[in-house]
Design brief:
- The complex is a heterodimer.
- Chain A has 28 helices and 23 strands.
- Chain A is an alpha+beta fold.
- In chain A, strands 1, 2, 3, 4, 5, 6, 7, 8, 9, 10 and 11 form an 11-stranded mixed beta sheet that branches. In chain A, strands 14, 15, 16, 17, 18, 19, 20 and 21 form an 8-stranded mixed beta sheet that branches. Chain A has a 4-stranded antiparallel beta sheet with strand order 13-22-12-23.
- In chain A, helix 18 runs antiparallel to helix 24.
- Chain B has a single domain, classed as Orthogonal Bundle (Arc Repressor Mutant, subunit A).
- In chain B, helix 1 crosses helix 3.
- Classes of the chains: A alpha+beta, B alpha+beta.
- At the A-B interface, helix 1, helix 2 and helix 4 of A face helix 2, helix 3, strand 2 and strand 3 of B.
Chain lengths: ~900, ~120
Amino acid sequence: MSREKRVSGIRRLLNLPESRRRVEHDVDDEIRFHLETRIAELVAQGTPANVARDIASREFGDVAEARSEIARVDRRRLTRERRQAWWETLGQDLAYAVRSLRSRPGFGAVVVLVLALGIGANVTMFGVVDRLLLRAPAHVTDPQRVVSIAMGQRIDGNERLQRILSYPIYRDMASAASAFEQVAAYSPDAMAFGRGRDAHELRGMRVSANYFATLGVRPAVGRFFLPEENGNPTAPRVLVLSYGFWHRQFEGNRSAIGGTLAIGDDQYTIIGVAPQGFTGVTNEAVDAWVPLTANVTAEEYAGWLRSRQAYWLRIIARVPDGLTPERASSIATAALRAGSVRDGESPQEIAALSPSVHLVSVLPRKARADSTEAKVAVLLGAVSLLVLLITCANVANLQLARGIARQREVAVRIALGIDRSRLVRQLVAETILLSLVAGLAAIVVTIWGGGLVRRVLFTADLTANAAVDVRLVAYTALAAVVAGIVSGLLPALQSSRPAVSDALRGGSRAGGPARSRTRIALLVTQAALTVVFLVGAVLFIRSLRRIQSLPLGLEADRVLVVKVRTSGMRIGESEVEALYKRLLDAARSAPGVEHAAVAGGLPFSTLWAEQVKVPGRDSLPLTRDGGPYFNAVTSDFFKTMGIRVLRGRGFAEADRATSSRTVVVNKTLADLWWPGEDAIGHCLKVGGDTMPCAQIAGVVENTRRFQLIEDPAVQFFVPLEQAPRWSHGSVLVVRPRGEAIKAAESLRRELQTRVPDAPFIDVSALEDLVSPQMRAWRLGATAFGVFGLLAVVVAALGLYSVLAYDVSRRLRELGIRIALGAGKGDIGRMVIGGAVRVAIAGAVIGFAIAIAAGPTVAPLLFQTSAHDPTAFLIAAAVLFAVSLLAAVVPTRRASRVDPIVALQAD
Amino acid sequence: MGTAAGTEPMLLQGTLDLLVLRTLAWGPRHGYAVARWIRETSDDVILVEDRALYLALHRLEENGLIESEWGLSENNRRARYYQLTAAGKRQLQNKAASWTRYVAAVFRILESAEGRAQA
């Protein structure tokens, strides 16, 4: 047989594909052979050469066209064959990878562990960012056309956005028919079902009848509200269950539809179930939806219509397809102003406030993009990508070290004629395989730990859904494959081009300068990124510390907040008041309670403002934040809350409705209204000139009103019994002994037992109202801390493995050095020197990155400079300590080299 | 009928493929040999442009019915040899049988029509 034929046989045997360039060449050869053979034949029959040429070419047809047609067919075949071969050999390569990994299980385990950490961190952060920012509200049709409506008003020259609005404004919006297809309103309302010990809280949501239609949601079972079930306080009482509540309470039984559920004092007919995971346009979990007007009396409804400034309602709308948001908002603004005029606001007022309608997309990436939480989450998402990068660099380094050990094997394969791209694929297949295993481990970790992370760091409503879903698994698979390729490609490229002859001879055992440069570069990269994370961790921890140590003026961690769910109950104001009074008595006599008080308002929750006059003064100065604010409280309020009385006294039992009127003022009021003198004994006329004088009995520490970070404002306190009826008790505060949160459930049971006819009693920690405001910093501190720790561990592991490998590779050299008289100290310094050089380079580069990233991070920090030298110092110190630690074992091994053994080896 | 034949439209795509497969049934041969065999065996009745023949060969190879290898020709030149694959042999059997039935049927119809015309 021919030589050519044998060569092509070998090519097939070795799976070497034909090259595409060859295709054209072969087609030419084939055609030329045909024509020349035909001509020769004709000539042999006696045809003159020129005639023969004509005949042959006529018989053949258009040569150029034939060439291109045939070449096209061949190229197509080649591509398909190659693809087929690729998949066929992939199986072989994976089997090869498994064999080769099984021969060194320790190596595989380390790589899987490192990658699982990296991928796990990344996947957890993806889950958070996905839920917080990427995912559109579930079950909403065309969510990009759904907007929530906010009202902008000019106050003190600044435009302020009001997102919670009033019923008349809702009606204005509904009248702007050309701007919106549908306008719906909703308002969360915590309700209770059952009584006494069996009382349960129901996370209710009052919605207008077209709420579901506006969002384009279809019921999972039954139906949603009808138009006549809304706007009419006497409509039948109906409700729609959430899918989760339906399953918890009715085991997902369809017969629940048409049945009833007792809420407050009334029976509600269940008409339908919302689809699984539907929570409207926010992530807040809901148990049931009721019509906006459910259980609202005709008088109350008339009140809604009158009170343009009573803000309690959220409004959403669907913009018609093709209408720009700008156009829709200008139509809506006109409707809003017309409504203001109709409700009696003067043109001057309207001109001063210049109210306008703002349409805010409900897509989370638009609606939440400005929140600190979202910014921190995005930052952490980016950081988690860097964590993954570090782990990839690390695995690449491990693989490189291993590649050097496998040099001879690779050289043999190349000498046998294996294609380089195939070899690279075999080597990359190994890391992809490991990376996929690591991805699986990461998912397990996410199931187990991800929910915890989200619960601890984010709003509770993010935990409403399962921790792992299709999107997360898909992302994990993607991350795993990419990580496998990234960490495998560089080492594979490096080890697939060894100096074949050298490696086969086995003479040179060194990795070559290029390779060790790559490894050093990878180590330095890891060290640099580690420094960046450590700096970030310290910055966020310091921010969190600072924010936690802000004086709030009260002891949030010592106070429990008790509220009774009276919504949906026919219960008058005086009955509510009486109920709180009984609860106050019950709380006071409950075991483990130090103090308790009833108040009209609560810091971080509700606050009242009221007019005040001081006899003989025309005007009273206020701070920028307005006021004066006031609170009606019972005698032990200050003791319960831990608010310090600076001068004079707090309230006593003696401050009754009938006794002389007293007030307690805060420090800001005292300093602002009576600068340089004692405010005590002065007269305040609460409610205006016509009111009687109330004497200032004491001055207390300033407390926060709503925000951790806010300016102080003028505030005073009135004994509950002397306060106007409308400001009376709506909350009970209790100070148990020790940490408040631990006593919450026992206090709830105690109160529910002592006041058995009370509806559901809700006990929560005041801390819970405060701490969400620290969430962004807590998130940053925790995540940077965890990522920093991860980076430190991974970097140390990487440094250790490279140093250890280096030492084992240089045993002979070290042996010679020792034989030539090098001391143990010299050898040790050599190894440690390498580690220190990596650390120095890493610290320098890391500092540069951290300084460059400063402006990005600065707005997320609190009272901490992004270039805080302490953070940099700590980061550098940790890096050096860890580097030295990683060098300990290799150094000891190096200095214990026995020259005789080392030189005899190999 | 004979002299009018050989114009390309008379030769359907499937027919050429069948002829090529049949030609290769005796063993590997190069494109030129296939062309000559078809021409000579059909006594120049079937005239195919060589271009079409080569295209058919490469298409058959693409479809896995034949495979090719480079070898040396009788006059010691580099030539591409084609041979049937297992799939090609199966295809040949199936198509040849149905083609023969088809031609026989056409032939019977033509025969009877001619007989009646003469009568």
